[in-house]
Amino acid sequence: MTLPDFVPWHKNPQQEDIDIVFPEEDAYLIIPIEIDGTEGAMVMQATTRSNENVLYWDIDGNFLGTTERIHEMVVNPKAGEHILTVTDSKGSSKKRKFIIVESAD
Q1: 3-state class of 104 per DSSP?
Q2: Strand 54-59 and strand 18-22: pairing?
Q3: Which of 51, 104, 70, 63 is nearest to 87 (CA)?
Q4: pTM (whole model) above 0.70
Q5: Nearest 10 degrees: Cα torsion 31, 62, 51, 90
Q6: Residues 8-25: pLDDT tens digits?
Q7: By the 8 A CB rule, do 45 and 70 touch?
Q8: Alpha-carbon distance 58 to 34, whole Å?
Q9: Residue 52 in contact with residue 43, Cβ under 8 Å?
C-alpha cells in the first residue's frame, strides 16, 4: 500500500528540521549537588527529522561537541543567563535561552 498523491490545494505547513526538547525557552534551572558532594549536570536534548543529521552544540558561542542519532549533551553551565545554539549538518539552527539559578545550599 502506498500513500495517496499530494492534494495540490492542501497547504503543507513549514516544518523545522531540528528542535530543542530541553531546556525549555526561558527556563530557570538549578544544577543540583550530587549525593557524594560533587556538582551535578544537566542533560540537554534535541530532535531532528533525519537520522543522518549531525548536531553541533554550543552555549554562549563556546563549542561543546557533536551528536549523532541520539541528540543529548551533558553540561554544567555556571549560574546566569545562557544561549544554547544547536546547528545541524544542513545548516539549520535553533536557539534557546535559559537561566541557571544559584542553588541555596
Answers
A1: coil
A2: unpaired
A3: 63
A4: yes
A5: 150
A6: 655 544 557 899 999 999
A7: no
A8: 25
A9: no
Q: How many CB atoms lie within 10 A of CB 18?
A: 19
CB count, 10 Å around CB of 46?
Answer: 21
The side-by-side arrangement of strands in the sheet containing 62-68 is 27-30, 93-101, 80-88, 54-59, 62-68
As a whole number of angstroms, the distance between CA 45 and CA 18 comes to: 11
Q: Give the C-alpha separation, 59 to 76, whole Å.
A: 11
Amino acid at 36: D
Grid cell locating 46: 534535541
Question: What is the gyration radius of the CA atoms in the chain, in angstroms?
Answer: 18
Query: What pLDDT is stored for residue 102 in this prediction?
Result: 82
Q: Which residue has the cell 554544567?
A: 76
In the structure, what pLDDT confidence band is assigned to residue 98 with cuts at 50, 70 and 90?
very high
